[in-house]
Write a structure and sequence with these properties.
- It is globular and about 55 Å long.
- The chain has one domain.
- It has 17 helices and no strands.
- It starts with 9 loop residues before the first helix and ends in an 8-residue tail after the last helix.
- 80% of the residues lie in helices and 0% in strands.
- Helix 3 packs parallel to helix 6 and helix 5 runs parallel beside helix 8.
- This is MATE family efflux transporter.
- It is a multi-pass membrane protein.
Length: 452
């Protein structure tokens, strides 16, 4: 059910909101790891192809972020003000707009997917990536809509329902993966559909579609304290739509800049061969696991901060952000210890190739140095998305990746011809600069005065 987050213990409300979200995202991350495990049974080239596609695919995430970030402040602040009519309107328009932009994004990426893939890898990797990628792109509107439903539920204080939905979706994914991918499920005599890498994509879209249907029904049924209208999904509201575009535009540009920078970084990684790309993809999936708790904390904090700002409780919002930053840093430090001492074990679970394990371990150890700074900035940055002041995100991304990491990569690899380890170290330099920018904008305090 919906919750009033403008009162009560901050730590209690933060944990109540964040833990279910952490669990839900962690369940999805476990699926991603299992997915990469099964794909590794096909080949190292298959893992590389999924890693390259994922990097290209998430460029379109900027479209999701523009509206998604706007919706966090609009929904949570409206609910904090007890303006339920505006809350319903924000939810309706968020789902409609995301569906439309997802169609545009899917078509755009599909048109250029093959040449983009070809710029990073050889034909075998490209062919596998195309088989996987076109299926994922076709169902991008469902994926975006599912994000919208879960975000809306969290913004009104219901973090458990998205958790249950995400856990169910992940379990279904894990079950479907080997059945759809292999002729005979490895280790059993159970017959599968032998769809290969395409099966991994199909299992993902089936689980996402079912998750969306469940979440959509619960949100629109009125059983969660609000009741948006299905019929109003077909009607645009210019005033609300303008806010959905403009509030989150800096954040969308930030995500676009960040993900585009990941393509450039991937190009430097690909210079060292397919095995290194596979190690980078596997290591990235493992890193994604630590970001799930951080995202859970950030989303939980954003709901509390958004409702608090809507009720003009600025001090409560600031305390929530600082507490979130501290908890995020603690979680990340624990993960860093695991990476430093057991990194090769984590990599070997997803790929048994000795070279992939070696490169993957090096990637995780050296690039994780800056993670604790990222974690702290993650916590503080929750005030930006909750208030609707999203310009800092753009400076954080442009500064850390385009002004620091990519120029350093060019110097390290193209000019000085340094070894692969300097590609991994470049992440730490960028992460530290991002931390400094987040501190600056948080301390400046403009977020305290912004309202949607």
């Amino acid at each position: 059910m919906a919750r009033d987050l403008t009162k009560g213990s901050i730590i209690k409300e933060l944990l109540l909101m964040s833990i279910p979200t952490m669990i839900g995202f962690s369940a999805q991350m476990i699926y991603d790891l299992v997915d990469m495990f099964w794909i590794g049974h096909i080949s190292t080239a298959a893992q590389a192809s999924v890693g390259i596609f994922a990097t290209i695919f998430w460029v379109v995430e900027a479209l999701n972020e523009i509206i998604g970030t706007s919706s966090i402040s609009l929904i949570s602040q409206s609910y904090g003000k007890k303006d339920y009519e505006k809350t319903n309107l924000a939810i309706e328009q968020t789902i409609t707009f995301k569906f439309v932009v997802a169609i545009i994004g899917a078509i755009s990426i599909a048109l250029f997917l093959k040449p983009l893939m070809g710029s990073f890898a050889k034909k075998e990797v490209v062919d596998l990536g195309i088989k996987y990628g076109y299926i994922r792109l076709f169902f991008l509107p469902i994926m975006f809509s599912s994000f919208s439903v879960n975000t809306a539920l969290r913004c009104i204080g219901d973090s458990k329902t998205p958790m249950y939905i995400m856990i169910f979706s992940s379990i279904l994914n894990i079950i479907l993966d080997p059945f759809l991918m292999f002729k005979t499920i490895p280790g059993t005599s159970i017959q599968g559909l032998n769809m290969g890498i395409s099966g991994a994509a199909v299992s993902t879209i089936i689980s996402q579609s079912i998750a969306f249907i469940i979440g959509f029904y619960l949100l629109f049924s009125g059983k969660r304290g609000i009741k948006p209208s299905i019929f109003k999904l077909l009607k645009l509201n210019f005033k609300m739509d303008k806010k959905l575009i403009t509030i989150g535009l800096p954040n969308g540009l930030e995500v676009f800049a960040r993900n585009l920078s990941m393509l450039v970084i991937l190009k430097f990684v690909s210079l060292f061969g397919t095995t290194v790309v596979a190690a980078y993809a596997v290591g990235g999936r493992i890193f994604g696991f630590v970001f799930m708790p951080l995202m859970g904390l950030s989303m939980g904090a954003s709901s509390i901060i958004g409702q608090s700002l809507g009720a003009n409780l600025t001090t409560r919002a600031a305390k929530t952000a600082k507490l979130t930053a501290s908890l995020a840093s603690l979680i990340t430090f624990t993960f860093m210890l695991l990476v430093f001492f057991k990194g090769e074990v984590l990599i070997s679970f997803l790929n048994s190739d000795a070279q992939v394990i070696l490169y993957g371990k090096e990637f995780m150890i050296f690039s994780s140095i800056g993670l604790i700074f990222v974690a702290y900035s993650f916590g503080l940055s929750s005030v930006f998305s909750a208030s609707g002041y999203n310009l800092p995100f753009l400076f954080m991304s442009a500064g850390s990746r385009w002004l620091i990491q990519i120029p350093l990569l060019f110097i390290f690899i193209k000019i000085l011809n340094l070894p692969l380890i300097w590609v991994w170290l470049s992440f730490a330099f960028g992460d530290f600069f991002e931390f400094l920018i987040s501190i600056y904008f948080y301390t400046k305090g403009k977020w305290k005065k912004i309202r949607t």
